[in-house]
Amino acid sequence: MNPTANPIPPLVLKLGYAGLIPFVGLALLVQLAPTPLNYLSAESLAGYGAVITSFMGALHWGASLHTLGKAPTGDRWIDRNVWIWGVIPALVAWVALHIYIPVGLLIMASTLIIQRNIDQNTYRYYFSDDAARLAFMAMRNRLTYVAAACLTWAAIVILFIQA
To answer: What pLDDT digit, counting tens, does each position of 30-61 carry?
Structure first.
């Protein structure tokens, strides 16, 4: 393999970036669509944000399944905290779906950023190759910041522009 090539497979890159389409499209519809489509778009954006927030937490469970049935490693993250952290984003997203939509959108945007900050330190447990980990985090950073910006923008539009 070419050492300068991205170690992330093209399919993973395409799927990752395609995942931004609903964030961008729905955030634009929240601002530009007529009523009631703008409200339906806000609800859909909240739902999609909750799914993605939950998915990002679930990555930890998926990455740690190989440790089941093995002796404890003595590492608190691998033996205990990964399982707890893996479900927290889903619980936060679920709560965010049950409150005033713009506040829920802001909670999910914040959760995505917090997840990214924690994950930059914990992904070292899952990647055996530093180049792949760094490439994945570069993609993750872009995806996270665009998704969080779309959630935040939609919340601002609802709170201050459409008010």
So the answer is: 999 999 999 999 999 999 999 999 999 999 99
Residue 5's pLDDT is: 83
pTM, whole model, 2 decimals? 0.94
For 118, other C-beta atoms within 10 Å of its C-beta total 15
